[in-house]
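Notebook B, p. 112. Complex prediction, attempt 2.
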Amino acid sequence: AQSVTQLGSHVSVSEGALVLLRCNYSSSVPPYLFWYVQYPNQGLQLLLKYTSAATLVKGINGFEAEFKKSETSFHLTKPSAHMSDAAEYFCAVRKMDSSYKLIFGSGTRLLVRP
Amino acid sequence: SQTIHQWPATLVQPVGSPLSLECTVEGTSNPNLYWYRQAAGRGLQLLFYSVGIGQISSEVPQNLSASRPQDRQFILSSKKLLLSDSGFYLCAWRLTGTGKTEAFFGQGTRLTVV
């Protein structure tokens, strides 16, 4: 069975500091992985996706994630946090069947201090 | 371009009342459609998905049902709401026939059962 685990339900950084949100996956086949962002009372917006091409994936808003098979990780990073990055972030893995459904982690709330 | 519409944005309903949430997708045909629920402080749980008109798969036993009466319309219903049905409901769609794996989300409906 496929799953993702997000370490840390809350992460707090100062404005301008590095953002690192952790995601580890479990999958018996090469996974398709995603990061989504959710602002309060809104839907989810796709940040980036890994689909077995380049291991370093660049997304929107300056975020990127690196797929590391040896560590079964897909951590999300951004060199310099902005106040507008404060939101909840979800890591997800695609279920490898015809449904294409996404299995989400429990989410990490990013707080950005001025 | 494709867009997804989900309504209403917020809803307060008494226990025992019926529910109908609607989601429509524009600009594509034969999308995969999904209903997720996000309970307070928790991740996203897939409730239903559909790969075609009249084809509904239920992921978890519950008080809710789903229907897909038209290709781009997905409805979430309940005959009698429970307090535990409160949450943030998200509709999502996926483009089929392209190999693309990501899902795109609506803005969500916040349901409060009182």
